[in-house]
Structure formats: structure tokens, C-alpha cells
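re: ur question from yesterday

yeah so i grabbed the chain u mentioned. its 203 aa long if i counted rite. heres the sequnce exactly as i have it in my notes:
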Amino acid sequence: MFQNIVSCCFFIFCLFFIREKIMYKSIIAMALVSGISATAMANQGSGRINFTGEIIAAPCSITSDNMDQTVSLGQISNTALIAGGTSPSHNFNITLSECNFAAEDGRTANITFTGNTNAAIDDLLAVTGFGDDVAKSENVAIEILDSASEKVIFGTAITHDGLVTGDNALQFSAHVRGADDATAEDIPLGNFNGLANFSIAYN
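ran it thru and got these C-alpha cells back, copy pasting raw so excuse formatting
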């Protein structure tokens, strides 16, 4: 009988030991799964943001959307540019923002446009592109006008007087112009672009 009791106790002990071992492994497994889940959730996407800018000695700032503008001139019929014809004009502004003038001096802005010009069409802004029609690109150019609808001469400063504290919008417009002797066949077809730079000086 004593042997039976010992065997029974040993059996119970084994069951208890196995139960504890299983629970221990379960706890370890749950901890590992939780750790893996936490690691997976910790990074579900990443990236980088690069901030740039420039500090200038000037009474006004120029916002990023004014520094690098894209002015769409739309889809233009080639027949509209025959014999010096022009496309519809599109307005754009160069806004001098948060202007702060210490005195009356410095309230005049002189803005100068520069870029590659087309000598065949009154030194207007040259254009590039047109794919297979690139050889005809000299028959069109982009004309920029100031707020008085006067042609902007590249390399020559345009004076804007009476700037006020705060924001000042300098208004311009642009259109495409064809060469004076251009026929419909002379006008290039396809996408184009023209790049103009500007600089500002205050006095």
C-alpha cells in the first residue's frame, strides 16, 4: 500500500510539474509575441523632411510660392499666333510680404527680369520644347507685361514706388506671341516652357 501511495504522490507531482512548465512556456510565448507586436507597431513608415530657406538683408520677404512659380499659358491654337498674333494673357503676381520699412527710404522696389531671349521676336523670352518641331521654336516667344500693360524689357529694372508696410503685390501678365511673318505652318506644335528669373533691389 505504501508503494501505491508513493506512486500516486509521484504521479501528482509530475502532473503539477508538467502543468507549471506548460504555463511557464505559455507566458514566455505570450511575452515574445507581445514584444514582436510592439516592435512591429513601433515603426509603420518613416521619411525625412528637408527644410531650406535664405535670410536676406531686405525690408520685405518673398514666400516660396512666389520664388518658384509656374504660370500655365494654356492650350494655344497655332492660328492665333500667325503674323505676330498673341494668345490670351494670364496674370501673375510677385508678392513682397511682411514689408517693414524703418523710414520713408527703401519704399521703392526695382525688379529686373533675366533669361534667354529670342532676338527674332523683339528679345522676348525664348521658349524650349516642342519635340519634333523644335527647329521652329524661334517663331514663338513669351511676352511679359507690367501692371500698365507695358512690355517688360529683359535686363532693365522696373520701378514700383509707394510700397506699404505689410504685403505688396507686384502685378504682371504674360502671353505667347508669334513672329511677325509666321504662318500656321511656321508655328511649332507641342509642349513648351520658358524660364525667367527675377531679382529685386530696394531704394
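noticed a couple things. Residues 97 and 167 are 4 Å apart (CA to CA). also The chain has two domains: 1-43, 61-202.
anyway ttyl
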